[in-house]
Amino acid sequence: MHSFKELDRTNLRFENNLHAQRTLPWANFNAPFESSWCVISPGQSSTPHHHHEYEIFVAVKGEAFILCEGKKTKLRQGDTVHFKPFTQHCVVNESQDDFEMYSIWWDTEMSDQFLHQHGIDNKAAQNV
Predict the structure, then answer these.
(1) What is the pLDDT along the chain (128 residues), one digit of tens a residue?
(2) CATH value of 12-126 in 3.40.50.620, 2.60.120.10, 1.10.1740.10, 1.10.10.10
(3) Which of these, 59, 105, 122, 128, has the minimum number of CB atoms within 10 Å of its CB?
């Protein structure tokens, strides 16, 4: 059995200076992380921010730059970038086309809740 949730490109919400749709969490799927589909328009950048969660961006379409703690790194289709908690970052799209990416984030609380919901003792899981 599998679950399916379709991306609704016509109803992306504008937040953090980009268009996004939360893809997780959702009622029929329990995961130890949350995620969003994100689109950054040409000439735009996401709001610079930091947070307590770990985060991964997966570039899906186009190319952009990551600004992370003063360093500028190109991000192209298929590339992945990881941010540790409290790392200042944003995405800058200097191209003429939309940049699309998948963002995944998690923290220890999400992981612990997931393990608890599945009857797994976190200390036992660490010893595996």
Answers:
(1) 677 888 998 999 999 999 999 998 887 777 899 999 999 999 999 999 999 999 999 999 999 999 999 999 999 999 999 999 999 999 999 999 999 999 999 998 988 888 888 788 766 556 65
(2) 2.60.120.10
(3) 128
Q: Are 22 and 11 in contact (CB under 8 A)?
A: no
| DSSP 8-state class, residue 127 | T
Ranges of each domain in the chain:
12-126
